């Protein structure tokens, strides 16, 4: 079976326990995470990520677009993540907290 959708840079997300990260390397891993392990209620960004990750797996979309959609879904869900932009380390990204 040919697997489409490998990402150039991984995305690590904190799903359940603080400090415990799951590293996602491809659109198929992202789809599995969205379907099996997503810790919050689904929203529009989540639904978009499902569609785009499936399209990337089928070769109908870019893996990097699927990665971006997955990042947006995690951001919108207030899931802490680390993005592999720096080779020696990850940059931590956390969504802003409401002021009220």
UniProtKB/TrEMBL annotation:
Q: Name one Pfam family in it.
A: DUF982
> Which named protein is this?
DUF982 domain-containing protein
